[in-house]
Amino acid sequence: GEDVEQSLFLSVREGDSSVINCTYTDSSSTYLYWYKQEPGAGLQLLTYIFSNMDMKQDQRLTVLLNKKDKHLSLRIADTQTGDSAIYFCAERDDKIIFGKGTRLHILP
Amino acid sequence: DAMVIQNPRYQVTQFGKPVTLSCSQTLNHNVMYWYQQKSSQAPKLLFHYYDKDFNNEADTPDNFQSRRPNTSFCFLDIRSPGLGDAAMYLCATSRDVGASDGYTFGSGTRLTVV
């Protein structure tokens, strides 16, 4: 069945880069996504990557996809306090399946 | 601004008392989804509407129903809420089932069952 796994917590010092990792099982996934959820809010789409790409960059965000290993990562450069949130990895074939989310904590 | 609006933000209901959560969208998207999100868990898809066609997930309890009277509105009805139904309920929309640009989410309704 479809499954998306990611670590639950990550602590990063302000100004450093954050790297959030994710693995998925569905090899027929067409798109992979990163969503951000701030406290008490819904999910906000940060970025997505098509399954035939291996990298996508958008300002401070870099997404890397290793389709062979079914591994997706999100790198946030120059992490700021406003980046503190839960980050959900998600895969899509006919519907979007989410991981449990990685809570990113920023250290001063 | 085009958006997805969920009302209310917080809902308290009594055990066994029917409750309805609402979602509206100004995006004119064809598809509307309802997700249940419990603490430290992945959002779980309950069902979705493609236009007027209702699509239920296989493991969604019968206690959960949905209505979509028009393109803009979609409701989640919980017929007899149990303590285990306390969660954040997220509504989302997408242009089409196969659209690449992901889903647009509302802010969610946090349901408490007492």
**What's the overall geometry of chain B?**
globular
Q: Work out the helicity level of chain B.
A: under 10%
Shape of chain A: globular
For the termini of chain B, the CA-CA separation is: 36 Å
Class from secondary-structure proportions of chain A: mainly beta
Number of strands of chain B: 11
Average pLDDT for all residues of chain B: 93
Strand fraction of chain B: over 45%
Distance between the termini of chain A: 40 Å
Following the backbone from N to C, one meets helices and strands of chain B in this order, namely EEEEEEEEEEE
- Summarize the largest interface: chains and residue counts: A-B, 25 and 23 residues
Oligomer: heterodimer
Note poorly predicted spans of chain B: none
Q: From the alpha-carbon coordinates, what is the Rg of chain B to the nearest angstrom?
A: 13 Å
Total beta strand runs of chain A: 11
**Fraction in beta strands of chain A:** over 45%
Number of helices of chain B: 0
User: What can be said about the biggest beta sheet of chain B?
Assistant: 7 strands, mixed
What is the CA-based Rg of chain A, rounded? 13 Å
Helix content of chain A: under 10%
Largest sheet of chain A: 6 strands, mixed
